[in-house]
Structures are given as structure tokens and as C-alpha cells.
Design brief:
about 400 residues, alpha/beta, Rossmann fold, 6-stranded mixed sheet, 4-stranded parallel sheet, 14 helices
Length: about 400
Amino acid sequence: MSLNDTPSSERVHIGFFGMRNAGKSSVVNAVTGQELSVVSDVKGTTTDPVTKAMELLPLGPVVIIDTPGFDDVGKLGELRVKKTKQILNRTDIAVLVVDSSVGLSDADNDLVCLFKEKNIPFIIVYNKSDLVKKSGLNDNEITVCAADGTNIYELKEMIAALAKDFQAEKRIVGDLLSAGDMVVLVTPIDAAAPKGRMILPQVQTLRDVLDADAMAVFTKEFQLADTLSGLAQKPKMVITDSQAFGMVSKIVPDDIPLTSFSILMARYKGFLETAVKGAASIKNLKDGDTVLISEGCTHHRQCGDIGSVKLPALLKKTTGKELNIKLTSGREFPEDLSGVALVIHCGGCMLNEREMTFRRKTAEDQNVPFTNYGIALAMMNGILKRSISIFPDLVSML
């Protein structure tokens, strides 16, 4: 990914759902203007979700998801339907494609119930309008013909209207800065760092600093002391990779605010307050408790990996307890958290806000404390209050 590419986590996710042979893939291809999905008259041609990040006018950067038929049958069909339900957890806008000649089926109505249950705005698209004319449509319904392009433009306009709610400007740190402020970004380069580039939260934070007309200096943790002494002006704040919290907090003077990329990402994704409350439960862990450590991205775990090595070691040191550590990554997040005493999640830079909200609420609904790497590490290093000092309302909670 180049620095100019919009990350998938920042794109509006548009999912296309419906029964087999309703014409989902044909509608997807018509909307995108690409042969994104294979189309045939055979039921169940789409056997796995097809995902494509692209630019879609008049929306801009989006992720299009074509799903298997929701009425699929057999053991494999059950797995495909389960996969489709999982797609809902990261869908910002749902498009339900219905065969006009058949009308709404029980499976379609089940999907509508799921959309409403998960608070997903949706559009019902009656495809194959060349075969059957339909009248008396609601505001969120439209007839189209994917084969000849009828009303495809109008469908895209309807999707774009719903997408506006997801395109409000959010800030990572820029709203806390003024023009001319200096920010020091501490970025350790470890074995797990992608070769030749920075990790996504660092790039996103840098861009937000520059958008605020502030200045940024990058440094490694062992160069931080020299960096601070060499600056002509006092930094507005220091932002560090969470795993260097312990070392960095000893170097940065108390009168300079200190926080982490992970803490800022929790704020950006809308669960910082939850994470602060969740971190408090670390001190209540008991022998035999299960802690779920979950990452939103997938990467080869290496020696010194923060999720599988550093966090478990610090948890054991902090609590003095023998804990059962469970690891998940990518899309693997269990909906059943029975027996889990605490969830520690990554910053979620590779997941869109809806999926992070789903994961947080999954834990919340089952009374399982939920926090993230940065907050947990700050708490276990004894600097949580300092690391969130730039958010006074949160400090008062501690």
C-alpha cells in the first residue's frame, strides 16, 4: 500500500446480500463497473465473500463485499451463511438484492431483521425489473435491471446518501494541537515492523499532525533523550509506541504530556473510555483466568511479539498470577466469550469503526471487561493517569 492509498479501515464498507440467484453479483458488477464477481445461472456461484477496495463515484473510497446466498443449503451452505453473518459485523451499508419475480423471501426478511438488529442502514434492491414491474416502493427501495443498467445510477446515489453519515471528519490528535506546535513521535523499529515502511497508526498520526499545521519529529526510543535536548522548543506532547512506554516515560519530563499511538487509536475508534475502565480489571485477575489478546491484523508472530510475548509476560509480572492466554488475529473474534475474564485488543487500525464497535459490544453484552494494548501497557507500567492526561474527563475516572 502506498502512502496515498486510503486504508480499508477508513473506507465505507458496502455489503451486498440476498438469496442465491437474486442477481447480487450482477448488481455488484453493474454498480462497480467491473467484473468483480463471477456471474452465472447456477445457484450458489458465489461461495465465499468477495471483497474489493476501490474508488466508487460519487462515494469515493469504499470496500465492496459480495456475499454468498443467504439461503444456501447443506453443511457447506451453513458455513457460508455463517460467513455472511460475520460480514454484517463490518458492514456500514447493506444492499439487499431481491429477485423481482420472486419477491421478498423468508431469508430476505431474516436479513432485514439482522440489519435492524445491528443498526445497519440498508437499501432493498428489486433486480430483474425488466421481467416484473413493481410499484408502491418505500424510500429505501428501488427497482433496477443489472442486465441493462436501468436505475443503477440512482442506486449509487442512494448508497452515497447513506454514506454521508460515515464520512464525518474525525481526528486522531490534530484537534488537540495548534499551528506551530511540536510533536515528538517515538517509533521503535522491531523485528515485526514492516520492512521499508512505517506501521499504519504512525502514518495516520503523522498526517493528522501535519493537517493541524503542527510539526513532527520522529525518533527511536534510545535516541529520545538526545532528540528532546536538541529541540529548540518544548514539545506540545510525546506520542510513543505502547511497547516502549516504560523506557519513554522515564525520559520524558513530567511537564510534557505523554501518550501512545494505541491510546489515540482507541479514541479514534470510539472506545477509549471503555478501554480505560477495562484496564482496571487487570488487578482483579485470578489464577486460571483466561485473557483474550486479539489483533485486528494478521502477521507472522516473531520473537518479542507484543501480543503473544510481551503482554503475557507483563500480565504475569503485574498480577503474579498464572493466566490462560488466548490469542486471535484478523477476522477471528469469538462471539461467545464464556470463560473470558478480560479482552485486550490492539488499536484496531486495520478494522473499521463498526467492527471495533461490534467487538467492544460483544464483550460489553457479556460483562467482559474490554481494553486495548496501549491502555493495558500504560496501566501495568504505572503511568495510565499520565498517558491520558490530555483527556481530563478520563483522568477523573481513575
